[in-house]
Amino acid sequence: MNKILAIAILLITTQNLISQTAQELNSKGIEFAKKGKIDKAFSIFEKAIKLYPDSPGPYSNRGNVYRMRKEYELALSDYSKSLELNPDNLSVLYARANTYMDNSNFEMAISDYSTIIEKKPSFSDIYFDRAYANIRLENYEKAKTDLESQLEITPKDFKSLANLINIKKKLKLFDEALADYQKIVNEFPNQPNLHILYNNWASLYRETEKPKEALEKINEALKLKKNYDIGLFNRAGIYLELGEEKNACKDFKKALKLDLEKNEHFEADEDFEKLKKLCE
Prior knowledge:
single chain; mainly alpha; Serine Threonine Protein Phosphatase 5, Tetratricopeptide repeat; elongated
């Protein structure tokens, strides 16, 4: 009886030692990663996995390294193994969802985000993340619902408000979008990219055939950022609609001098071709 008890105690002690040693290796790898020594961290996680294949931590951390290296399939495999060993770790599930996003697998990302929402709907930014995945799939109604849910949790979330406006524009809910622009500039008067919002606001007025209102908003954008190339190009198009060709060419030429065509957000459109021909 005493011998059996001794064996049982020995087994428990050995299991605790294994668990502790796996944790120690995992912690050591994390410390290397924090210091920027990623290759050393990776080696430690590899060692931990070989010695303790049933410990979930080293898999998720090796997955993080793979994700940093943009080896997404390997990262997904490690996150999945970690979740197999510890299904309740929502942080790992979130990392896997984000890696699916990195890998343009938006359906699987939505599946993981949805699981997190079922288990913990207060998980930080989770509705916004699922909304963004739905945007990438052009599921705009679902994205709208998710952004509205996110704003119920975090009413002052600028990125959710801004993206909700864009979704409403996609859904042709123009009156709602226009009202939201007013709301967002009132609530975030010191937001660093406010000029972009005013530019988008102007573009929406143009889309709804209200060039005078568009001019008012684009002027606000250019007050905030004088040498805003996209804004100057937008105003040139507005002046063109209003028949003010001299002002249109003045803005267009200035935008070109500011390297408009090299701006990653610029796309040559009908306005560009008209202005180019008019202002040569």
